[in-house]
Amino acid sequence: MATRTDAPTRREQILKEAARLFAERGFHGVGVDEIGAAVGISGPGLYRHFPGKDAMLAELLVGISGQLLTGAKRRVAEADGGGAERLLDSLIEGHIDFALDDRPLITLHDRELDRLRDSDRKMVRQLQRQYVELWVGVVREVYPGLGEPAARSAVHSVFGLLNSTPHLGRGGVLPGRGATAELLHRMARGAFAAAES
Amino acid sequence: MATRTDAPTRREQILKEAARLFAERGFHGVGVDEIGAAVGISGPGLYRHFPGKDAMLAELLVGISGQLLTGAKRRVAEADGGGAERLLDSLIEGHIDFALDDRPLITLHDRELDRLRDSDRKMVRQLQRQYVELWVGVVREVYPGLGEPAARSAVHSVFGLLNSTPHLGRGGVLPGRGATAELLHRMARGAFAAAES
DNA sequence: CCTTCAGGTTAACGAGCGCTAACCTCCCTG
DNA sequence: CAGGGAGGTTAGCGCTCGTTAACCTGAAGG
Fold this sequence. Notes:
The structure is a homodimer of 197-residue chains. The first copy, chain A, has 197 residues and is an all-alpha fold. In chain A, 70% of the residues lie in helices and 0% in strands. The first copy, chain A, is elongated. Chain A starts with 9 loop residues before the first helix and ends with a helix. Chain A binds a DNA duplex (30 and 30 nucleotides) through residues 10, 31-33, 41-45, 47-49, 52-53.
């Protein structure tokens, strides 16, 4: 898994614009002509890069879930021996970065999953479950008072909290990226702590 | 505004089933024939009750937002002199009841807003904003350390937390309604408290 | 200079969808 | 008992959308 350094390909342009459009108006609400227009080509030209509209959504969702899980695993590996508290903070930080930097993707992630073909959906669900279970393990280490079902519920709820970023910018000014990230981080920790008691 | 006591009308059946279907597969992903079949009539028979598919979604979303706001205002009135702490708990409880009892509606509420005609969307947005501002006022009374922008962000984030209920039942067992409600309530309070510090 | 191929183009097809038209059938009321 | 409206039905229209077919073009390679 080498890190990409070269310029963004046409394929990647398409994925990025498709993600934005899907997030804005829903998978069924966006036509292929629109996606094409967003990258400067028109309509069926997309079929030189993807076998179909479904494939774009599938690649996006699998990519998102995989990226989240991969990042979390890397953080676990890096935190080797650093303590569960630090690790949980690292996980939270990673999720917040994702939620703030890729809002359209976060939106898609829990909104359009049901539009996938069975095999793709199964794969995404599995990646998501692994991600959740990884969090649950760390959370229970930091907050031993939490039973497993409660911890899982708490993790899902905190995801809901962190994934609220698309709603934040709606009414105008949000207090800058750094401050928002800090606020979300504190709230997540506070929510977990309160879940334990 | 008299409280309804009579049996559910056909209109209400339709709205309920439409909400469920829209939540499951998205507004554009559900056909009128499906909605009709879900209430035992077929296809165009719906047009005896609604002028169009859009109108169903509009009535659902306006109804949701209005119901949330109305309930919150009632709680404010009832808590007259009872203290801000108690009032905030009451607001949280009301929102949780809604999120647990009407999951499809909660899902629609922040997912299909953009499919509305401009006038309807404007109305929903206004109701939502009033609801948020009502919360912001109470939250800032309980947690005076919060500035207004931070309080607003915190409120949106806590909504994300509370509205995560549709994701909770996914993987099998959730620990019973009462316990879930309690957990969510504690986490919401914990998140607000941590936002203040 | 010819070939090839990646990456476009426009035209058009077929399916699905929202919605309308036309018609039917109870049930209620004067 | 006439009649009329509420609430259904089926047939079908028109439009949109995903996808395919057929064609074009410019750049690279021998």
